[in-house]
Amino acid sequence: MRVLTPDSSLPSDPVLIEAARILDSGGVVAIPTETVYGLACRSAFPDAIARIFEIKGRPLEKRLPFLIPDAARLGDFTNSPSPRALRLAARWWPGPMTLVVGHDPNSIAVRVPDSPITRTILGLCAGPVHGTSANRSGAPAATDASGVVMAFEGGAAPDLIVDGGPCRVAKESTLVRVTPSGEAQILRQGALSHDDLVASATARILLVCSGNTCRSPMAVIIMRALLADALRISTAELPAWGLSVESAGTAASDGAPASSGAMGVARRRGASLTQHASRYVGSVKLESFERVFGFTPEHVSSLRSRFGVARAETLDPRGRGIADPFGGSDSEYDDAADSIDEAVSLRIPELIKLAFRPTS
After folding, report:
1. Which of 15, 243, 331, 348 is 20 to 30 A from 224 in CA distance terms?
2. In terms of pTM, does the model score above 0.90?
3. Taking the chain (360 residues) in consecutive chunks of 10 residues, what is each chunk's mean pLDDT?
4. For the domain with range 3-192, which CATH number is right: 3.90.870.10, 2.40.128.630, 3.40.50.800, 2.60.40.10?
């Protein structure tokens, strides 16, 4: 087996140019990453793909992941990556996380390895590159070039091994599936744990009324309580399950407190809105939310036409509006809260699917 050591990670390095040339010619190259060494080939060459399966003894039903040089290329593989997938990619790429995106049965796995050498090779190639761990199927993956040589000695082997030194992490990447609707799940525990990922994998839900002092603050405490009940956890545990519920208003001024009526509803439900501060929806990064709900069809129309949130929906899945209790009596506030409770209850079965469940 031919082993070459590059002098740098620059695109002018002869070893990296040679590696890209072999890949673009339909060959197979062993490349370094921060996790484990990988076997790579261009996706345009069926014979090269078949060779990787032969070299590894990999089951044919297991498709090969893609390796890309930077997170911006994720859009080449899926038309509409969810906000959750984009946040994970922004936080962990380059790094030891592989994302599975798209619709089954055509979902694909993608990763940006944290190896400048390999990212340069990927950038030099004329098209997409597959990459999978350098090992016989079922055996430990190689974490240095000598391990690649030992793994494939005496059998089918790659055309070139690029020696980038020992792998810094030396553990396979964590495999995370994020569906187009935003559901997320760890498929394979690897270098990153649930606790590592959960902050960037949190599903954000936004509730939008007009002034953000009555309906939407009440809906936040109601939705948090119903989500926690459905998951059999406390509301304090929702962040650890990757769920965040927030609010804003289409006509809100920033920093106003919740109305006294809304605070009364919160008190009667064992919660508090004393820390609430209103915010204008136009100052919110709306594309970062998995779900955006308005309280009336007019809110939804405004969110879509004025603020560009095409996926906005009414909180009540039946399309019914929820009246504004501002300036009303306690009973009017309680009636509004009951209507919110009913609407949120209808949404809970779909919303709990967004939970990023801790691995057992």
Report:
1. 331
2. yes
3. 97 98 98 98 97 92 93 88 94 98 90 98 97 94 97 95 98 96 94 97 98 98 98 97 98 97 97 98 96 98 97 97 97 98 98 91
4. 3.90.870.10
